[in-house]
Structures are given as structure tokens and as C-alpha cells.
Amino acid sequence: MYVQARRTKLEKIREMGVNPFPYRFEKDTEARYVFANFDQLDNTDRELSLAGRVMTMRVMGKASFCHIQDESAQIQLYVRKDDVGEDQYKLFKLLDIGDIIGVTGPAFRTKKGEISIKAHKIMLLSKALRPLPEKWHGLKDVETRFRQRYLDLIANPEVRELFVKRSRLINAMRSFLDGEGFVEMETPVLQPLYGGASARPFVTHHNALDVDLFLRIADELYLKRLIIGGYERVYEVCKDFRNEGIDRYHNPEFTMIEFYMAFADYHDIMELVKRMLLDIATRVFATTEFEFAGNKFDLNAEWEILPILESIKQYAGIDAANLDDQALAAECERLGIEIEKTRGRPKILDDIFTEKVQPNLIQPTFITDHPLEMSPLAKVHRENPKLTERFELYIAGSEVCNAFSELNDPDDQRERFRMQQKFSKLGDEEAQQLDEDFLKAMEYGMPPTGGLGIGVDRLFMILTGKTNIREVILFPQLKPE
RNA sequence: GGGGGUGUAGCUCAGUGGUAGAGCAUCUGCCUUUUAAGCAGAGGGUCGAAGGUUCGAUCCCUUCCACCCUCACCA
Fold it and tell me: What Å distances lie between residue A363 and A162, A389, A395, CA to CA?
């Protein structure tokens, strides 16, 4: 019925000889500009052209007010019959909230003190056939907000600003890396083998080749091929796809940024990522202090470096290095940590870590030197053959990134893949695949390299205090209606 | 997958075993500086879906669907 009323108006507008969907409008001013420069604009004859969506209307017999919203702000229009003429005023009365219009006229301040535009000309730019969510209470229903994100963006300016921030954040990362001499590369989304992470993939099919292909779960192995190819600093901002559960920390497609730096080790990467996060936080948010889920942290604080076994000793009181598997399992039971007996020692350690250590890591903390079995792409620790040179950065109890001194010994890499194959046979659906093509590449010689991946959505959540990933992804995955 | 919650007008929300309510939006009339979106009046509902209990269900019961929270799984 709402739609019908609007269609009737649409016909009336057409009968007046007005095209309700014209082609362009010469917009020269943003609403925000008028507010920012009102002192120079007030009481001048300067004609400004603005355009935006009608958000409010107060229509009276011969003079009316409305607000239009453009990308920058909302501004009031004063439309007087004597100023715009009989026909335009008639047209104005046929407008609805939601219509997109252009206006030309000078800026002034009303009796009540609101900065406004006195319309000399009004132009309908697009007729809206459906009513907008109400303006006073706004749009709150989260399902509508996610399913019809455009309504969320129209109704909730802070959401519009949030996604601009997201864009700026990614831009800042690119600009930081570019400044460090990195080059952004593009690697395949469709891969004959999936690799570079432990996760279940999406499978698709290429008809002409008649082969199954996987949507990438990471771009790691391709970026390393580029390091082998002679680029010394590469990165990629990429969408990865993981065929796993959806919850407030996981969306099936998500954004990663990975970078690889030849001749560097994981210590260099720690230093680099710290500089990078400080740089982008300062540039995008103009602060280093944040709060996420009630936890305050400061990127300017000291970033502790804590080997994972040390962290377990410190927070769980378990000296895992000196315990055999049985004793370890007994300790878990004592602490009330449920473990699956079938899982190997690394998984048990991971469970302890997740349960007892991770929630305590509020200030930026590098957790380092993970056991070998957990890290099939990381280089053996130079001082302990059971460990790898790896770190994960934790902030506010969340993992933000994962990095290694990259494994570049092809024979060792082959062994690691074989170990993964064993896990796979034991039923680990996330075990990594043996990639002969990648091994071949490495056999041509890969320089010592440090590499890192940052989950961009997670990082952005932490920096904006959003505790649901759907708040930071424009079109999050939902079940079909 | 388990537990808890939500689903009522375009939007935000009340409510009841006896044919459904408010504010805003919509429609009509009035109005040349209004504004929580002017004043007055009017219209508007498959009460998430299907079944059951009942003389009668939006309300009680069952199943299903979607979303939120939480646990599990999972980076």
C-alpha cells in the first residue's frame, strides 16, 4: 500500500512532464562544506548545488522544509513557493522521504538557527518506491541491517563511517608496505591444491578443463613462489575462503593481508609488524589506545615476547617441556581442561593455551616458538629442533597475526608435508596437502624469508571494539531467507 | 550440534485464551522560517510458518524457519 501511493505520485510526476529518473545533476557542494564554511557563505548570493536523499519533510501550504542527506551530512532545505515557482512547488509536494533530489540556492540560517539552503531550484533525481526505515528510532533489527545493508547505511551514519574507516585501514597497510619497498601481487583464487593454512576448503569445478579447483584458504604458497622468483618484498590483500562454521569471529570469506620479506627472519617481522600497526593506528584512528570487549590496550605499551611453552608455564602452571604425554593429560584433567585423547600432543598444548593463556593476553604479546608439528610451513628453531621460529600476535585476547621464519629447505618441507599426510589419514580434515609443485619451486632455491599474515577483519574488530565480525563485513554470509 | 532468547503495522516497540495497540512513517485537509519529523483527522495487520488442544489461539502445546547470545566445533 505504501508502494502504491508512491507509484501514484510517480505517475503524477510523469504527467507533469518531469522525468523522475533523469541522467545527471551538476553537484558542486557537499553538505559538510556548507557547515564548515558557513561564515563565508552566510548572506551571500552564492548559488550552491547539493544533492542527496530526502530524509525528513515538513510540507506546508506555501513554504516547506526538508532535510537531504548526502555522503557527508544532512542539511535542511527551505523551499518557498515564491522562490521556486508554482510548478516546482507542486513537484516538491509530490516528493517522498527516500527520494533523491538536487537543489540549487544560497546558504542561510533560519530563525531557529539551523544552517539551511534556500531552494531556488529543485530537481527530482530518483523516485523511491519503497518507504525508508523510520528516522527517529532508526533501523535496529540486525537481520535487516545485514540482509539489506544499504538500509543500514542510509539509516545509520556511524555504520557508513565505520566502513570508510575499514577502507582507510587497508589503505594505510598498503601504503605502509609500499613505503617499505613491498610490491603488491595478485595470486590465484582458484587453486588446484589448497594450502598455506589448516582449514577445510570450498570446492568448485572448471568445466572446460574438467577439473575440480579449490577456493584459496591462503595465498602463502604462491607468494613464496614469487620470493623464489626473485621478488624480495611482496604482499597481497586477499579474500580467503574457509568452509567452516559461522560465528561472531568467523565468516566463510574474509580478508587477509600476507607479506613476505626475503633475507629476513621472524625477529625482523616482529619489528616490522609492530611498526606497521602503530603507524596505521595513528594514521587511521589518531590514537594508540583502544578497548575491545572491556579490555583496554595500548599499542604504545611494550610488546612482550613470550615463548608458547613459557606462557603455558606462566598462566597454566604446567611445565610441558618436562612432562610426557600421559603426565600432560593428567595435568589437563587437574585443571579441568577437556581434551580429546585422540588428538596429538601439539593439539593438547593448543587446547591448554587457548583455555588458560589466551584470555590473559590483553596488551600486545608475541607468542613464539610453537612446536614443530603445529607449524608445517615454519622453519625449525635455530636452538631447539622440536620447535619452530614462529610467532602469533595477540591483542585483547584475540589472535591478530601469524608469522614465521619461512621454511626454505625443500627436503625438510617434504618431511613436514608427509607428517601432515599422516594426520590426514588419522582423520584430520584440516591437514595440509602435499604440494609437489611447490616443493619443486623450493628446490630451485628460496632465500631465507620472513612472512606474516594478518586477519584484517579481526584486526579491525579489535580496533573498533566490534565483537561480531558481521559488523565489520558489509555483506556477511547469512542463511538464505 | 547443545542450552537460552527473539520474531506483532513500513520502522521502533507495547499487549491479551474472546475478532489487535502506541509513536513515527502513510493518506486527506489546514498552514509562507518549520524541526523529537508543524496542526487536525483517517486508513493500515496471514501477530515468522505448519499442525495440535479449545466453543474460540497472536497468546497454551508440538514441529519447522530465521536471527541474537552462549557452549561445543573451528583460526
Answer: 24, 22, 6
